Amino acid sequence: MSRKDFLFTSESVSEGHPDKVCDRISDSVLDYLLSVDENARVGCETFATSGLVVIGGEIGLPDLVDNDGKVLRKGAERLKDVMGRVPQIARDCIRDIGYEQDKFHWNTCHVLNFLHEQSVHIAQGVVGREGAGDQGIMFGHAVDETPELMPAPIQYSHAILRRLAEARKAGELPQLGPDAKSQLTVRYADGRPVEVTQIVVAQQHLDPKLSSDDVKAIVRPYVEEILPDGWITRATEWHVNPTGIFVIGGPDGDAGLTGRKIVVDTYGGSAPHGGGAFSGKDPTKVDRSGAYAARYLAKNIVAAGLASKCSLQVAYAIGVAKPLAVYVDTYGTATVDEAAIEAAVSEVMDLTPGGIRRHLGLNRPIYARTSAYGHFGRAPDEDGGFSWERTDLADKLRAAV
After folding, report:
1. Catalytic pick from 58, 100, 195, 350?
2. 105 is catalytic
3. Which residues of the chain carry a pLDDT beneath 70?
4. 181 belongs to the catalytic site
5. pLDDT, tens digit, for every residue of 50-69?
6. Do the Cβ atoms of 57 and 280 come closer than 8 Å?
């Protein structure tokens, strides 16, 4: 039986964290290629350090054909046209995040582009066959702890940093820099989150004269604005920049790499993780689309009242369209048999990679916005972003069980 009274901690990192800078660049390259052709294939990795950004990986564009199927332009030739745009994409990302440091500035950092054409051996399992772009297992999770059906520690950790970034970019907090981390320890009583016992915020600041207490005074109102009433008590301990000065931030302070914050991107450790990163990958790669589908289904299971907490696993083999298995765990909260939920899942949604892309509308440039503050627990956008956060399958799931 699950524990009812415990402490649980999750962390988030801001868009200016070195790894998140890299995620943003990789996803922006993906968005650009999808805007050129919705069938673009992308596996883009980014590395960033002081004064340098290196971009590499595999990309591919299909041949351009007319209505009669005549090839007007080979995909390889089309790629040559887009390659020159990549360095500027990276600079635009760095500028939007806010880096204008002496050793990491959007206009002066070196950007090296080593992207190359996708392997034909990978493409043959996807193009025309709608098979998975790789093998692997993906997990989705949902729980009724927050309105977004997300675990509370990670949801509010994200919200704190997102609010601080909004205030910084709006000019409310010009003394702050882009790099930041947050961490919340939440106390659960009878299985429900009731208070925060520890608040950790590491926030870059531009004035070296600011003390930890000064930064705490700056960020505290924004933290209090985000957390539910009553969660901060007299006993809550604050740790704001506990090591002191935090002026050197971003890739100038620590190297960054795409895909190193997979737990931050998902459920903050509250649920299993399949191990695959999301950013820089087109939706034929089930590391991304399969995880989105699993979250979509888990969230709809909880929204339908079939359980108050749910983890869902789906497994794939490269080049094979049909998932190998679907597994549902409701942690003893299900209102119907879990086997019936598993059967209903496959009935209400086509879980082939192609079926997922069509159902969720994933072949669109909607990914740069996912690169910070979590891929889940976000409101669906009108243009199709965060489509996996909809709860439009709840009625069908209820009917199917």
Report:
1. 58
2. no
3. 1, 119-130
4. yes
5. 999 999 999 999 998 888 88
6. yes
